[in-house]
Automatic annotation (TrEMBL):
Residues 17-28 have a biased composition (Basic and acidic residues). The gene is Ndufaf4. GO terms for biological process: mitochondrial respiratory chain complex I assembly. Belongs to the NDUFAF4 family. This is NADH dehydrogenase [ubiquinone] 1 alpha subcomplex assembly factor 4. InterPro entries: NDUFAF4 (IPR009622). Binds calmodulin. Interacts with NDUFAF3. It comes from Eolophus roseicapilla (Galah cockatoo).
Length: 172
């Protein structure tokens, strides 16, 4: 609905606006400084001759310049283009996963998957004495400061159902 309204305003009086824009006088460009023009060089015959004259001394100096590249040729491994090179880091197998092929099987050390994050947050919420920050850090190969930040700033959702009497009290 909004697109139709916008189209009406956009196409309103298009022809007269286009004719008005075409008939408008075009802006004049700013004048150039007289010394920046090469057209006025013929006024001084010596300057134009100096511009187009070849300097033999400079040409001989330019011919003496020779650059040699001493870099070793780069060898490219023939990998068949299957995989791009990536940093090989230590990986660990994930603790959970019930989604089969969709699950992440290996995670770099120092990181966790989303399923693991939700599980460890829930475990800590239910049993904070057993699932301490130190135990979580050791279990999932994480740094202690990262685990402390995770437990402090992320809280899993809780579902609360209210009794039917409360629902009636709210409606009325």
């Amino acid at each position: 609905m909004g697109a139709r309204l916008a189209r009406v305003f956009r196409t309103f009086n298009v022809e007269s606006r286009a004719h008005r824009e075409i008939s408008r006088e075009k802006p004049r460009p700013a004048p150039r400084h007289s010394t920046s023009r090469l057209d006025e060089v013929p006024d001084h015959p010596g300057i134009k001759e100096e511009i187009y004259r070849k300097d033999d001394r400079l040409l001989t100096l330019l011919k003496d310049v020779y650059v040699q590249s001493r870099d070793l040729p780069v060898r490219v491994k023939d990998g068949g283009g299957e995989h791009l090179p990536h940093k090989q880091g230590e990986k660990r197998l994930t603790k959970l996963g019930h989604l089969g092929d969709v699950d992440v099987k290996k995670v770099p050390k120092g990181k966790i998957s989303i399923v693991e994050a939700l599980t460890l947050l829930n475990n800590h919420k239910l049993n904070p004495q057993i699932w301490t920050a130190e135990k979580i850090a050791v279990e999932y190969s994480l740094e202690l400061k990262d685990v402390n930040s995770l437990l402090e700033f992320f809280i899993p959702f809780t579902v609360q159902e209210f009794p039917k009497e409360t629902r009636k009290a709210i409606k009325s």
